[in-house]
C-alpha cells in the first residue's frame, strides 16, 4: 500500500506529518501573473507580480521550484524571535515556549527549497536546530514526575515531537494504568495480535541509546505503591527513546 | 440547523463561521487523523466522503480537459497536485478503516453499535471477510481438531463467551487536542455532576494538548469537542 505507515511501529510516518504541515498558509511574492486557482482545498489567487498572497505551503514550494515566486519566511522565523525563544527554552525547566505546531516541518521545507529567501539563513538554521535540541532534551530529562498518572497535559509541544514520543509515552502510561488497576484490564492481550503488552514480548524497534526516562508536566496522578512504581520504571527504562 | 431564530448567540455565530470556513479537505484530514489514532472504528462520515468524492471526480474531469486542450502545463500540474493530495486523504481514510475492520471483524459483526458505524460497502466487505476467513480456518485447521474445539469464535464448547474474538483496546493512551471546551469528567470514566473539589476531575479548554486514556473521552471525540493528533 503506497505511503501508509505501519501502525505497529508508529502511528504516523514523518512524511505523513509533513503532509499535514503542508497545508499551513504562508506568504509568497509571485513574479508572474496567473489567474485564481480553484482547488478542492480552497481558492487562491489571482497572482499579480510583486503582490503578496497567502497560499498553502505545498503550493508555495511547487511554485518556488519552478521559479515563479519568492517565499516570505513567516514572522516567527526571524533571528531576534528565535533567539528570544531559545533563551526562553533554556531558562524555563519544565515549560515549552510557544511555537507554531508545525514549526519543524515548515522550517525544514523552507531551508530545503527557499534558502535565498531567508535573511541570515545559516543563523536561523542553527537557531532552529538548537531550539529543537533543547526541547527534545527537556522532553527526555524530566520524567521523574511521571509517577502513575492518568492524563498528562503538555502545552506547546509540536507535531513532530509528539510523533516521536507517542509510542514510548503511550506504552509507559498504559503500563502505569495496568499496574494501577489490574482488575480493570482483561487479559485480552493473548488473544489479540499486535497489541502491545509491557514489558517483555514487545515487537522490536530500532533502539539507539540506553534507556532514558522522560519527564513531564503532570497534573493528575493516582497513588501507586513505591515498589510497583520502581518496577514499572525499570521496565519503562527498557524502552529508549527513538530520535 | 437553526434557521428560524432571530438572534444567534455568540457561540452559534462562531460555530457557523467555523463551519463555512472549514473546507472538506480540512474535515477529511481531521477524520483521517482521528481514525488513525483511535483504537476502535469510528462512525463513517458518509456525507463528507460523498462530497469529497464528487469534488474529486469533478476535478479529475477538469484536469483531463486541461491536458487535452493544451492549457498552461504549470497550472495543470498544480491542479494535479491538489487532486493527488485530496485523493491520498480519501484513500488513506478508507484504507485505515479497512485495516481496522480486518483486525476486529468478528467483534464488529457481533456488536450492534460498531456495526452501525460501517458504511454499506464496508458491511458487505465485513460479511465476505468473515465468511472467507471462517471457511479458510475451518478447512485448514478446525475440522481437524477434536470435536469440542471446532468453533471459530470460542475456544471450546465449554467457554461461556466468544473468547477467540479480539476486542479493541479502549484503554490505550492517545494524544488529543481540544477544539471546544469539554464537560468535566472523572479520569476513571464515570461522569457525575461536577463536584469541583475532587482533584481527579478533569476538563480541557480549547488549545490544550494532552495525552490521555481513550475510554473516558470517547464521547467527547464523537461529538467533536476534541480531536486526536
UniProtKB/TrEMBL annotation, chain A:
Tagged with keyword Nucleus: yes
Region entry Disordered, spans: 184-208
SUPFAM superfamilies per UniProt: GINS helical bundle-like (SSF158573), PriA/YqbF domain (SSF160059)
Major localisation: nucleus
Localization, UniProt: Nucleus
Domain GINS subunit: 76-169
A single GO BP: double-strand break repair via break-induced replication
Homology family: Belongs to the GINS2/PSF2 family.
SUBUNIT field: Component of the GINS complex.
Protein name listed in UniProt: DNA replication complex GINS protein PSF2
TrEMBL record, chain B:
Subcellular localization: Nucleus
The organism's place on the tree of life at top rank: Eukaryota
Ranges where the GINS subunit domain occurs: 60-130
Entry-linked Pfam families: Sld5, SLD5_C
Keyword terms, alphabetized: DNA replication, Nucleus
CDD domains (UniProt xref): GINS_A_Sld5 (cd11711)
InterPro entries: GINS_A (IPR021151), GINS_bundle-like_dom_sf (IPR036224), GINS_Sld5 (IPR008591), SLD5_C (IPR031633), Sld5_GINS_A (IPR038749)
Keyword Lipid metabolism: no
Predominant subcellular localization, coarse grouping: nucleus
A Gene Ontology term for the protein's cellular component: GINS complex
Keyword Cell inner membrane part of the UniProt annotation: no
Role of this protein: The GINS complex plays an essential role in the initiation of DNA replication.
Family listed: Belongs to the GINS4/SLD5 family.
Protein's recorded name: DNA replication complex GINS protein SLD5
Organism per entry: Corchorus olitorius
Lineage summary: Eukaryota, Viridiplantae, Streptophyta, Embryophyta, Tracheophyta
